[in-house]
Amino acid sequence: MFPPTRPTCPIGPDTCPPGRLGGVLLKEIRAIAGEAVVLSPQDRAAEDANTSWFGAPPHERMGMSADEVVAAFEEAADALRDKVAATGHPGPATFYVWHDGEAGQLRCSISSAGHDDLPFGDTYQVTSDLHAIVQEFLLDRAPGAITWGSLEPVPYSEQEREPPTESVSVWACDLCATA
């Protein structure tokens, strides 16, 4: 029989304060500027490599402020603007950010399209309010989930109908403009 001993480390939930991964999220956002950028107007599918997505569980989101996340995206945009200028890219280049509520993620990408021709399958509206997009992400307490009460029955019809689409708010930043 083994002698009874007390564990040397705590057992149970992690005792680190909420928000400890917030610094990781901010570093990941800033690191976008260090990644390779693909600008290919002839092959927009190749630009999919520019897409990044960020998630965090609700308890981690509570430890972050929208201001610090917005600042990280703005720093990344400034660095990307310098990077695109150094390549001599002749056309438009846009860095854009949106909250994908279905996936519970903040997403961003870079495209050789202008802000009015971004590669979204859904309808979108460009906004200058990145803070609102980030705030929506941070306040999402059930990321990637749909609450039972928000489900609506879909009536069966012999005719095919297009489902109503919600407009996605997108913050877009021109990478060819000088600051």
Structure, explained:
- This protein is α+β, with helices and mostly antiparallel strands and 179 residues long.
- It has one domain (22-143, 166-174).
- It is 25% helix and 16% strand.
- The chain is built from 4 helices and 5 strands; from the N terminus they run αβααβββαβ.
- Strands 1-3-2-5-4 form a 5-stranded mixed beta sheet, with helices on one face.
Cα-atom Rg, whole angstroms? 21 Å
What structural class is derived from the secondary structure elements? alpha+beta
How far is it from the N-terminal to the C-terminal residue, by CA? Answer: 72 Å
The biggest beta sheet reads: 5 strands, mixed
Secondary-structure element string:
HEHHEEEHE
- Which ranges are low-confidence, i.e. pLDDT below 50, for 5 or more consecutive residues? 5-19
Quaternary assembly? single chain
Beta strand %: 15-25%
Helix percentage range = 25-40%
Separate helix tally:
4
> Strand arrangement, largest sheet?
1-3-2-5-4
* Structure summary, number of beta strands: 5
**Total count of domains:** 1
**What sort of overall outline do the alpha carbons produce when their principal axes are compared?**
globular
Mean pLDDT score, rounded? Answer: 83
Core attributes:
179 residues; 16% strand; 4 helices
Short description:
This protein has 179 residues and is an alpha+beta fold.
Q: Could you give the topology of this structure?
A:
Layout: H1 22-30, E1 52-54, H2 58-61, H3 66-87, E2 94-100, E3 105-111, E4 124-127, H4 130-139, E5 168-174
Parallel strand pairs: 4-5
Antiparallel strand pairs: 1-3, 2-3, 2-5
